[in-house]
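stage 2 :: seqdesign
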């Protein structure tokens, strides 16, 4: 992969707009391509890793950028974007848990979600990835839908701190009593934006993309973009 360390050819720095455009161009290039290495593979993580590597290779031929590392935790730290690759049969993935407020506000970065269906060709002994969707979710929209909607309703009905505390406890956010108090005070001062992910509590957040797929393909909404349109 070409990056900033390879100065033989000066390539333009990657921008968010160019990243989205590259995603649009990448999907047709990889869709239906025979991939022998993925034949018979049922591990979604292995498929995701393959697609991510191919996308970085594709980008590296045109743009200069620094790919993410385990320290940054996301694929494009300079742009604040993480790439997720998931099967259409169960469109979900995990992401690092940083703090409970991510479920109320946002993950702290944008998402690009590639959604595929995998078919194995026994004659060619190769897999084909048929990409169904490529979706961009703006950082501000990466909160949990039910949590942010419920809090918005409480605030709309002039709810107070006690109402918010009860709601946070009912939603079983991973917080102790002091943490709930602080978050409730923040919510009163800084009402959250409606998020569109479904985020399940776990040691890592479990992100589910069914809603954003539906929004991107049928209900155009600010903050959720169908990159294949």
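stage 2 :: out
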């Amino acid at each position: 992969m070409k990056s900033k360390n390879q100065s033989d050819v000066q390539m333009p720095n990657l921008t968010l707009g160019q990243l989205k455009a590259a995603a649009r161009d990448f999907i047709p290039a990889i869709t239906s391509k025979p991939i022998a290495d993925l034949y018979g593979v049922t591990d979604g993580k292995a498929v995701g890793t393959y697609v991510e590597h191919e996308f970085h290779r594709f980008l590296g031929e045109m743009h200069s950028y620094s790919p993410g590392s385990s320290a940054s935790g996301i694929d494009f730290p300079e742009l604040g974007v993480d790439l997720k690759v998931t099967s259409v049969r169960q469109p979900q993935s995990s992401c690092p848990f940083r703090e409970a407020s991510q479920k109320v506000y946002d993950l702290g970065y944008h998402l690009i979600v590639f959604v595929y269906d995998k078919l194995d060709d026994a004659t060619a002994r190769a897999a084909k990835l048929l990409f169904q969707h490529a979706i961009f979710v703006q950082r501000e929209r990466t909160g949990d839908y039910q949590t942010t909607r419920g809090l918005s309703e409480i605030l709309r009905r002039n709810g107070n701190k006690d109402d918010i505390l009860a709601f946070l406890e009912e939603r079983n956010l991973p917080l102790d009593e002091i943490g709930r108090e602080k978050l409730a005070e923040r919510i009163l001062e800084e009402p959250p934006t409606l998020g569109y992910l479904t985020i399940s509590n776990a040691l890592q957040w479990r992100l589910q993309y069914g809603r954003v797929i539906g929004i991107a393909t049928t209900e155009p909404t600010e903050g959720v973009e169908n990159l294949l349109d």
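stage 3 :: structure notes
- The two ends are 28 Å apart (CA to CA).
- The chain is about 35% helix and 20% strand.
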